[in-house]
Amino acid sequence: MNTLTNPNKLRGFERHIKVDNVSRRSILKGLGLAGGFVLAAPVMSRPGFAAYQTGADKMPHGTVVDPRVFVSIASDGTVTIVAHRAEMGTGVRTSLPMIVAEEMEADWSRVRVQQAPGDEVKFGNQDTDGSRSTRHYLMPMRQIGASARTMLEAAAAKRWGVPATEVKAVNHEVIHSASGRRIGFGELAADAAKQSVPSVEGLKLKDPKDFRYLGKGQIGIVDLRDITVGTARYGADVRLPGMKYAVIARPPVTGGKVVSFDGAEAMKVSGVEKVIEVKGWPWPSKFQPLGGVAVIARNTGAAIKGRDALKIVWDDGPNSKYESVAYRAELEGAARKPGLVVRKEGDVETALKGADKVIVGEYYVPHHAHVSMEPPVAVADVKGDKAEIWAPVQSAGGTREDVAKTLGIPQENVTVNVTLLGGGFGRKSKCDFALEAALLSKELGAPVQVQWTREDDVRNGFLHTVSVERIEAGLDKNGKVTAWRHRSVAPSIASTFAAGAVHQAPFELGMGLVDMPFEIANVQCENPEAAARTRIGWFRSVSNIPRAFAVQSMVGELAHATGRDQKTMLLELIGSPRILKLDSVKDLWNYGEPYDSYPIDTARLRKVVELVADKGGWGRSVPKGHGLGIAAHRSFVSYIATMVEVAFDNGKLTVPRVDTAIDCGAYVNPERIQAQMEGAVIMGLSFAKHGEITFKDGKVQQGNFDDFPVLRIDESPAVTNVYIVPPGPDTPPSGVGEPGVPPVAPALINAIFAATGKRIRALPIGKQLEA
Amino acid sequence: MIKLKINGQERNWDGDPDLPLLWFLRDEAGLTGTKYGCGQALCGACTVIVDKQAVRACITSVSDVVGREVTTIEGLHPTGDHPVQKAWRQLNVPQCGYCQVGQIMQAAALLIENPKPTHDQIREAMAGNICRCGTYQRIANAVHLASTGV
Ligand code: FES
Ligand code: FES
Fold first, then answer.
1. In this predicted structure, what is the pLDDT of residue A51?
2. Is the peptide bond before B20 cis (omega within 30 degrees of 0)?
3. Contact B80 A12 (CB under 8 A)
4. Quick one: how far is CA A314 from the chain centroid?
5. Looking at the structure, do residues A530 and A647 belong to the same domain, yes or no?
6. Nearest bound ligand to CA A711?
7. Which residue of A has its CA nearest to B129?
8. The Cα angle at residue A375 between residues A370 and A379, in degrees rounded to 5
9. Rounded to 5 degrees, what angle do the CA atoms A443, A444, A449 make?
10. Could you say which DSSP state residue A166 is in?
11. Which of A153, A198, A294, A763 is the most exposed, having the fewest neighbouring CB atoms within 10 Å of its CB?
12. How far apart are CA A18 and CA A12, in angstroms?
């Protein structure tokens, strides 16, 4: 038996674009919330209006703004609000319902949150990714709440025979102050349901000065108690009568397949019941399963033991030569030659030739795995032409469509129940694990849970891309940057969907390459070709990670080359407060948002730099062996600046303090924004210090947290401070879940340079500081 | 037949005596509070308390705990109000929450052994528990809060 008095001893080491966005989009009517609640009446779907435009209505199935879909009131006064987005740790299951409760004057302590199943016709788009939930739903949720409030007020006014203008909903009741009468929401529920839904245009939204919850951040997440007592239900916690437990041996090389297998030894393992082949799809397989051999057992432990005893002959397929060292050299070679021009201002070639000095930086960021603490897992129960799924998926609606397609049954016959997600980070935007469970359940005729082991997760995932970013900056005699050429080479996520995709898609180019915000006369961005040799997917903040790392490291290099302070250099490059035009960029990706509502505004970028520098005490004197670094980046239409302090103690790198400032426009729950920023700092540091997935003979060489370490508490910053820019009166909400990550690595790397004079250009840092 | 004592209750197991305790708890005993994260004692998600000490259930077999007291999150406190659980709620520690049961069990075990840990002792004792969401600052603060009175 192992007893862990010192847990270190046993450590052993020590999303998304929908490619078919447009075809999935359709405007359909809502269906109404069935069940024992009294606000359930026939529903009409109405277009939302908003003081600002967002890309919400361009998402598949757009938005549904209807109180009868999202709100129900029981006669005891309990208000149930539907959460239609997936909870993976961002707090969205709390924040969106809180907006509704705010506007309808519901008392939060009497609100229950009900998770919506996958049904985009009814609830609108459910793709919980792209840091979009608050940005797309702040206004629709306010409208839903205001509609419900208006209906409650109308019902009370009718009952009392007074004009609706004389009554007012306040904290779960409606009050007629002239007569002193008051009536609870529960008592009004039945009458309120009979009121017609008011037109969105006529709705009166609350004055922000009367907000009780919005923008305050005093409320704990709705699942807090369940999480701390162990009853919170994740995908792996679903139990059905007669349910089988399965693990699958998947092809070790992307695009490989089973030639033959022998399950005899596996069948001898106590608890193992069956060994069967699982269908796989040829590469590129989109979100479809990779195929392999499944071991079915009475518990997961037996299934894993059985899998260890399988004998499988694989055909490794076309990617069996994938090798990371050689691939890096290939990418570097491509980065040193001209590539597809994706942004062009002035004449970079001539400007570089005429420059007084040219600084070149070539940066490398390897593949990275999501390793959410909950590995992929799903339960399926397929009976005839009906399927029910329980899974931690970011894309409830997309999962429903894909299950229907994979099983060849109508979508209406598929129910997707979304459990809590034990982390997502983009991995769970792909529903392959739910499809595996569906295929197995169909074949077994029994409910089945497919559990991915950590090794499966590391070896068979949808990895963050691998990239070489090469930047050449030309300086004039005064140290002013006059030319900027950035070549970005990386296999595209598009390669997961279509064979032969060798260029970055617009949505990748727009993540830190063509949207580079510096005021430089001659700019050219290029994208040489790179062919994918494994599955590439969205990882929290996606291409912004390598781009921000390269661009903001280059700022540090230029500061050093010109003898300037890092922050001075950064602000000088950002230049005057202005809105970027970017006329030369074709299909500029602005995170799906209209540019008028969400332009690239350098004044906002400057502001977060100044805020973090001010609060973090930029320029303060630090002890010997310490160093300060700074970086700023706009992504997911938010602006973030991060400042890192490093310390070297006997050559060992520690991070005493991180300060980070975010401007995410209008916000709902600052306490969860703070949590997201704290988490982003940890993930960014983890990425920078440790994270690397490598391939040899087409196979991932890592498998678990021993060879793919992530940041632990003993390496975490002693203090992380978060500052949120108060929004202007008309600033639309932007993203929070992802944009905290990109500036962390370059701020760290710039701080290491300040402390040691050593410039790291390839992540992870690993042992580079030991030499 | 193996006889186990989990959260004060007797449980029988007549299957593979080498079955990791984690899978017995989750799949055979219906105690799903304890989580799987790595299966190799690398992440702490599966932490339970055996005779007052934190143990990784993923590499502990059912036969290893015969004659011992196993406590899982379900048995940590009758109403879920152990000081560590209360501190966790006060500071709104979790993000996705998946790692938090393991973190809470590890913290509870730490406080049995060392009721007033220093900041460095907290970081050392909690270093076997990964939180991919990055809630470490709050975890450290919550352990401190639990140790000083919630
Ligand atoms: S699952 Fe046991 S330590 Fe990770
Ligand atoms: S809260 Fe998500 S892994 Fe810790």
1. 72
2. no
3. no
4. 34
5. yes
6. 2
7. A712
8. 135
9. 105
10. G
11. A198
12. 40
Structure tokens that stand for B116 in this block: 């007033």
The percentage of residues in chain A with a pLDDT greater than 70, rounded to a whole number, is 93
Alpha-carbon Rg for chain B in angstroms = 15
Cβ of residue B98 lying under 6 Å from some atom of ligand 2:
yes
Q: How far apart are CA A413 and CA A403, in angstroms?
A: 10
DSSP annotation of A460 reads S
Ligand 2 atom closest to residue A422's alpha carbon, by position in its atom list: 2
- The interface residues of chain A toward chain B in range 358-417, judged by CB-CB distance below 8 A, are 371-375
Across the interface, of A224, A302, A371, the residue whose CB is closest to B132 is A371
- Report pLDDT for A344: 98
Residues B44 and B109 in one domain: no
A95 and A123 assigned to the same domain: yes
B35 interface with A at CB cutoff 8 Å = yes
Q: Which atom of ligand 1 is nearest to the CA of B57?
A: 2
Same domain, yes or no: B52 and B100: no
Residues A645 and A545 in one domain: yes
Q: Among A4-18, A92-106, A509-523, A737-751, whose mean pLDDT is lowest? A: A4-18
Q: pLDDT, tens digit, for every residue of A409-441? A: 999 999 999 999 999 999 999 999 999 999 999
Question: Global pTM?
Answer: 0.94
Give burial (CB, 10 Å; 0-12/13-18/19+) of A32: middle
Distance from CA of B145 to the nearest CA of A (A): 15
Give me the interface pTM, i.e. the ipTM: 0.99
The count of other CB atoms within 10 Å of the CB of residue A669 is 27
Q: Who contacts A312 (Cβ-Cβ below 8 Å, separation ≥6)?
A: A249, A258, A260, A261, A262, A292, A293
- Cross-chain residue pair A373–B43, CB shorter than 8 Å: yes
Residue-level pLDDT at A771: 64
pLDDT of A23: 25
Q: What is the CATH number of the domain that holds B121?
A: 1.10.150.120
d(Cα A577, Cα A588) in Å, to the nearest integer?
21
Same domain, yes or no, for B40 and B61?
yes
Domain that holds residue B36: 2-75
The CA-to-CA distance between both ends of chain B, in Å, stands at: 43
Q: What is the 3-state secondary structure (H, E, C) of B46-80?
A: CEEEECCEEEEHHHCEHHHHCCCEEECHHHCCCCC
Give chain B's domain count.
2
* The last residue of a domain, from among B23, B47, B75: B75
